[in-house]
C-alpha cells in the first residue's frame, strides 16, 4: 500500500479491537438487531458482514429477515417489538426497503436511543444542536479517517460534495464539530472544481464513478472517497469492480492522503455501527462513554 493511502481496513480493524476491549470490560453484552426485508443480494452481503463482525467483537446479534412482500405495518410491528425488548441496544433497518414500504415511516418508529444508524429525526436534531446522541456511521468513519491522516482538524477547510441525508449533511455537521471550516457543494454548485481546489479535506459522497479529477485537488490535500460504484470490468471474473467518486489514478499523485475504494470508508461504516451499538448500550444504562471509543 502506498504511503499516502489511508488504510480504512486497518483503521476499522483497530476500531473493532477497541470495541471488543470495551465490551470485555462491560458487565453487559450489547445486542445489535438488524432488520432485513426482501432478498436484495447486495443487502444480504452487508447484513452478513454486520452479523459476522458483531459476533467477532463479542456482541450479541439478532436478525429479523422478512420476505419482500411483508407489509409496512408488519415491518413497523417488528421495529416496535425490538424497541420494547430491553435486551436490544441497537436497531438497524437495512435500506433500501421494498418500494411498497415508506422507509421514513419505518425509521420514525425506531427508538432514538437505539438508533445506531443515526437516521431518526431526534438523532438528526441532536447532531444539529451539538447534543449527545447517536451519529450516522459513514460520516463518522470519514471524520476518523481524516483524523488518522491529519491529526487535529481545527481550522482546516473541509469541502463536502453531496448533501444527502445519509452522508453529506451529517458529515458537514460532524466536520464542523471538529472545528473545520465547512463548505457543502452539490450538483448545482458553480465552479465545482475551483471550490474543491480550496479544500484541505475533500469528501466526495456523490455516487458517480471517477467524477473528481486530479486537477480538482489541492496539492497535499486529504481526500476521503465515500463513493462505492460498481463499474463493468471485462478483465474481472465477476465482470465488474468497485470504484469511488474520485479518479484515483489522477488524484493519488496530487493528494497528501487518500482513501482507496474498496478498503477505505466502507469498512469504517460497519466498525462505526458496532461502536454506536456499544455507545447506545452504555447510554441506555447511564454509563459514561468508554475510554477508547471517543473520537
Ligand atoms: N440502514 C442502512 N445503513 C447503512 O449503513 C447501509 C444501508 N442501510 N444499506 C446499504 C448501505 C451500504 N453500506 C455499506 C457498508 C459497508 C460497505 C463495505 O464495507 N464495503 C467494502 C467493499 C465490499 C465489497 O467488496 O463488496 C469496502 O468499501 O471496502 C459497503 C456498503 C451500508 N449501508
Automatic annotation (TrEMBL):
Chain ranges passing through the membrane: none
Claim: Transferase is one of the keywords in the record: no
Pathway of action: One-carbon metabolism; tetrahydrofolate interconversion
Tetrahydrofolate dehydrogenase/cyclohydrolase NAD(P)-binding domain mapped to chain residues: 136-283
Binding site for NADP(+): 162-164, 228
Superkingdom: Bacteria
Reactions catalysed according to its record: (6R)-5,10-methylene-5,6,7,8-tetrahydrofolate + NADP(+) = (6R)-5,10-methenyltetrahydrofolate + NADPH; (6R)-5,10-methenyltetrahydrofolate + H2O = (6R)-10-formyltetrahydrofolate + H(+)
EC number(s) from the headed UniProt entry: 1.5.1.5, 3.5.4.9
Pfam families (UniProt xref): THF_DHG_CYH, THF_DHG_CYH_C
Record keywords, A-Z: Amino-acid biosynthesis, Histidine biosynthesis, Hydrolase, Methionine biosynthesis, Multifunctional enzyme, NADP, One-carbon metabolism, Oxidoreductase, Purine biosynthesis
Gene3D superfamilies named among the record's database cross-references: Leucine Dehydrogenase, chain A, domain 1, NAD(P)-binding Rossmann-like Domain
InterPro entries noted in UniProt: Aminoacid_DH-like_N_sf (IPR046346), NAD(P)-bd_dom_sf (IPR036291), THF_DH/CycHdrlase (IPR000672), THF_DH/CycHdrlase_cat_dom (IPR020630), THF_DH/CycHdrlase_CS (IPR020867), THF_DH/CycHdrlase_NAD-bd_dom (IPR020631)
Ranges where the Tetrahydrofolate dehydrogenase/cyclohydrolase catalytic domain occurs: 6-117
Role, per record: Catalyzes the oxidation of 5,10-methylenetetrahydrofolate to 5,10-methenyltetrahydrofolate and then the hydrolysis of 5,10-methenyltetrahydrofolate to 10-formyltetrahydrofolate.
Stated family: Belongs to the tetrahydrofolate dehydrogenase/cyclohydrolase family.
NCBIfam families: PRK14186.1, PRK14188.1
Name by which UniProt lists this protein: Bifunctional protein FolD
Organism per entry: Algimonas porphyrae
